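TICKET: design request
STATUS: open
ATTACHED STRUCTURE:
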């Protein structure tokens, strides 16, 4: 029997197939016009609007619609066949010569019954289906038989088959999202590491409005200041619907902006003090030429410093900063940063200051220098081990070749050459004219590396334990602590603390909220920003971010501007005991802030620059 029209058992080029189809559509349009009605009504998967000359897959016959020509009609993929559309759990529909749909199994049985009558014709018609079914195992045939309640029909949308009844359970036809394992949610980080550096500016941004943080009512401001002085803290819900109408939130925000400072001069900004000559230039400094006024200022300053240290020792003050025109000192109470004793960090320092501290009997360490020495010693040790291994290998080679004596002799000759390097000076008679380096020069060379540390982060000094009390006395009596000339002449260092102390003045950070538009892709989105300026202490930063979490529904970001000389104060100290527990409940800070500051520092000699919270989870950069 001649091959059925539209049947292409072998692979052909796309251009060839399309050319043959256009030719058959024009020449055989009249042949199939008589059977097009039966095909449209007898096929359950073929709709009345089915385009002409379309097949569900390559081995099937063409479909023709009544009164429609095949030219210019959108056609199906000509390369779709049984092999790339078959699913073992789906029952396929095979269309016979009359246009009726039959299951693949019944089609096979009918083909077997007709084999005796017209063997050649049946084999030609069922060649694709029988060859595919013969490769199936008995288990797969049984599985196909069990899934007979489901059938796929050809539709005119983008898919080749669609399911008529029942749910698709085959993993072969499920979407990748359905069969992929459930993605593991990223871990939620509810806290960022403690940053002991002083900040000069904070810039918060959030998609939600931050206007609630400015212009507090008089009652809210008074209540916030009172809560700060009494160390009372309010508990806020996990999420706030309307932060602007929440009086407790606004009071707590005013409470988080408070800090204490000495001395306090309204016409001068006393922070920062390092490289701040411009801010003092042109301002009134009546103490610059008045010795008695300078002594009065220093006397009051000494009382305030002694008060702060007494509070620190009694664990009623968690920490405080001393900011001079040359360096900054951070005093931390026992129990903070994992340390079991009072700790003081001074940065940056000079060789003269370190020598003066040694003369006063203050024991201190240079942690970053010691770390560098340890790393260099480890490298040198590794190099020495390599050299020893090489020497052992050489000795083994010499012993194997029985030339050990010659090898030792070669070494002695090399040493002799080194000893006689300057023998030519004696021959010339000028050895006495060579000036030998004196002891001072030798000492300067030895201390050259220590002098090179001056005014650098590596010059940070750590004082621990009882030596911090000696350091307080040293700072009170140190004449170089106050500038003798310049715009800051005669002005004592600035003391900053999160709690009240003797002679201190209460100050608040400045907050300003602005709504801006930010370009995201091709559109602009409204973004609210909150700018906070002033000497921002570590506890203030934590308190502000804790309040932004519920008010902004866990979505905000912050840019942090660090006072550069204090960035190194996040370094590790010697006596860090993470397991040590010291009661700091009476220090006047929020319990969450105390818990954060008690953790060992993990930032090293760097400081945080960005904090981002998304879906109540923190990420940060340093």
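STATUS: resolved
RESOLUTION: sequence designed for all positions
ATTACHED SEQUENCE:
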């Amino acid at each position: 029997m001649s091959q059925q029209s539209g049947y292409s058992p072998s692979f052909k080029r796309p251009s060839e197939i399309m050319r043959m189809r256009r030719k058959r559509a024009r020449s055989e349009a009249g042949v199939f016009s008589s059977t097009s009605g039966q095909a449209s009504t007898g096929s359950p998967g073929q709709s009345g609007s089915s385009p002409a000359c379309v097949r569900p897959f390559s081995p099937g016959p063409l479909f023709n619609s009544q009164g429609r020509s095949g030219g210019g009609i959108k056609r199906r993929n000509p390369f779709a066949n049984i092999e790339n559309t078959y699913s073992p759990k789906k029952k396929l529909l095979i269309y016979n010569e009359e246009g009726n749909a039959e299951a693949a199994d019944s089609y096979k049985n009918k083909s077997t019954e007709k084999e005796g009558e017209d063997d050649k014709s049946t084999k030609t018609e069922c060649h694709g289906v029988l060859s595919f079914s013969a490769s199936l195992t008995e288990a797969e045939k049984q599985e196909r038989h069990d899934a007979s309640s489901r059938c796929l029909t050809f539709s005119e949308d983008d898919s080749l088959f669609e399911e008529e009844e029942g749910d698709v359970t085959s993993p072969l036809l499920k979407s990748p999202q359905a069969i992929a394992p459930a993605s593991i949610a990223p871990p939620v980080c509810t806290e960022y590491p403690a940053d002991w550096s002083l900040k000069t500016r904070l810039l918060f941004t959030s998609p939600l409005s931050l206007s609630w943080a400015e212009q507090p009512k008089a009652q809210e401001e008074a209540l916030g200041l009172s809560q700060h002085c009494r160390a009372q803290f309010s508990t806020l819900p996990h999420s706030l619907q309307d932060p602007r109408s929440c009086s407790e939130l606004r009071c707590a925000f005013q409470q988080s902006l408070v800090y204490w400072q000495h001395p306090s001069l309204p016409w001068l900004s006393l922070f920062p003090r390092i490289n701040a000559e411009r801010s003092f230039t042109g301002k009134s400094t009546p103490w610059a030429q008045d010795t008695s006024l300078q002594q009065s200022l220093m006397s009051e300053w000494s009382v305030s410093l002694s008060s702060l240290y007494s509070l620190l020792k009694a664990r009623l003050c968690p920490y405080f900063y001393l900011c001079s025109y040359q360096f900054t000192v951070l005093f931390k109470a026992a129990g903070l940063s994992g340390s079991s004793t009072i700790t003081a960090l001074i940065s940056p320092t000079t060789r003269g200051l370190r020598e003066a501290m040694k003369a006063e009997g203050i024991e201190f360490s240079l942690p970053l220098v010691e770390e560098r020495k340890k790393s260099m010693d480890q490298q040198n040790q590794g190099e020495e081990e390599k050299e020893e291994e090489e020497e052992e290998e050489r000795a083994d080679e010499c012993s194997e070749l029985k030339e050990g004596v010659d090898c030792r002799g070669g070494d002695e000759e090399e040493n002799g050459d080194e000893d006689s390097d300057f023998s030519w000076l004696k021959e010339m008679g000028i050895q006495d004219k060579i000036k030998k380096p004196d002891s001072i020069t030798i000492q300067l060379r030895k201390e050259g590396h220590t002098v090179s540390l001056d005014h650098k982060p590596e010059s940070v000094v750590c004082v621990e334990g009882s030596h911090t009390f000696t350091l307080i006395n040293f700072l009170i009596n140190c004449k170089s602590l106050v500038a003798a000339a310049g715009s800051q002449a005669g002005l004592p260092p600035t003391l900053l603390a999160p709690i009240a102390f003797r002679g201190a003045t209460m100050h608040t950070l400045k907050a300003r909220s602005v709504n801006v538009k930010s370009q995201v892709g091709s559109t602009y989105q409204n973004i609210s920003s909150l700018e906070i300026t002033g000497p921002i202490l570590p506890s203030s930063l934590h308190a502000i971010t804790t309040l932004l979490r519920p008010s902004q529904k866990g979505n905000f970001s912050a840019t942090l501007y660090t006072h550069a000389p204090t960035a190194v104060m996040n370094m590790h100290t010697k006596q860090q005991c993470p397991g040590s527990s010291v009661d700091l409940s009476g220090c006047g800070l929020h319990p969450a802030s105390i818990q954060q500051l008690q953790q060992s520092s993990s930032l090293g000699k760097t400081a945080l620059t960005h904090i981002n919270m998304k879906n109540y989870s923190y990420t940060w950069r340093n």
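CLOSING REMARK: The longest strand covers residues 523-536. The longest helix spans residues 367-400.
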